[in-house]
Amino acid sequence: MMNALGQPGTVVVVGGTSEIARAILTRVLLSRPCDVVLAGRPGPRLDQAVRGLRALDARVQPVHVDATDVDHLVGALRAALVGREVDVALIAHGVLPDQDALERDPVAAGRLVTVNTAAAVAVGTLLAGLMRRQGHGVIVAMSSIAGVRPRASNYAYGATKAGLDSFFTGLGARLRGTGVHVVVVRPGFVRTRMTAGLDPAPFAVGSDDVARAVLAGLDRDVVWVPRALGPVMAVLRLAPRPLWRRLDQGPSQRLLRRTLAPWVTRPRRPQTSTRGGPR
Ligand SMILES: NC(=O)c1ccc[n+]([C@@H]2O[C@H](COP(=O)([O-])OP(=O)(O)OC[C@H]3O[C@@H](n4cnc5c(N)ncnc54)[C@H](OP(=O)(O)O)[C@@H]3O)[C@@H](O)[C@H]2O)c1
């Protein structure tokens, strides 16, 4: 159960080795030790994540899952959650394959949708039911700016995030008044293992920036990281197609980054809540 300061007692994470998830968990644990159900693919990375969280005094229950197998994922998570109350669930697993490689591999393109969208939808449905029965909880779903308007350079990934985003936005509307809240997180480029080796896009942030924004925004419906991306994308999603296509190209990206850098890298002010304090 959340305490009076809105700090969770139990957190469930799918994508337990995600750098963004780990940054969020670290911040949660620095304020209060809690129970963590950590679902991820078995292996050294998951073992290391478990050790890291235990070092921060978390009581960690690892759950071995693979998001390519939705049946097993749901079964394993359901079994791990029997008799538990869940305060916060973070759906953070995902892959960003190379677009060119996907175009040569239809099976991989289909599998991408299974991992990024189908598995997230299945987990979201499971957790929404559980939280509805207990009468409280927050589901945090990691969407992406890429889901807002498809780009030629990563349209397959963007499509998976558009599906996820739409599902969790609708789920949030569906759950209004039940005590369960859904937060859709839309980061731009985050410097993590997922983007290693890629040219940083304009507005690039670190995983701790995402963690800070998510934890300050647990009472919001949508969290953009950085926040400035919300208004920028509100305009860019209406841009004529030829202009949008040009913005996806290297020189325009560099120009955009240079133009916006001074504006987005100025000192951060604390995010203020629109609905009165984090839960
Ligand atoms: N980095 C960005 O720029 C960015 C921007 C917007 C949104 N996002 C989203 O934020 C979330 C976290 O990303 P991140 O940057 O933290 O990336 P990350 O460190 O690469 O984490 C990705 C996570 O997904 C897990 N995963 C991949 N395939 C899986 C599978 N088949 N079954 C189970 N788990 C699987 C990985 O587990 P393994 O350790 O087993 O591989 C890892 O835990 C993702 O949903 C991503 O799409 C990221």
UniProtKB/TrEMBL annotation:
GO cellular component entries: membrane
Pfam families: adh_short
Record-annotated Ketoreductase domain positions: 9-192
InterPro entries in the record: KR_dom, NAD(P)-bd_dom_sf, Sc_DH/Rdtase_CS, SDR_fam
Keyword Transmembrane set for record: no
Keyword Ion transport: no
Classification via SMART domains: PKS_KR
Molecular function via GO: oxidoreductase activity
Domain of life, per lineage: Bacteria
Keyword terms: Oxidoreductase
Matching PROSITE patterns: ADH_SHORT (PS00061)
Family: Belongs to the short-chain dehydrogenases/reductases (SDR) family.
Name of this protein: SDR family NAD(P)-dependent oxidoreductase
Record organism: Georgenia yuyongxinii
Taxonomic lineage of the native organism: Bacteria, Bacillati, Actinomycetota, Actinomycetes, Micrococcales
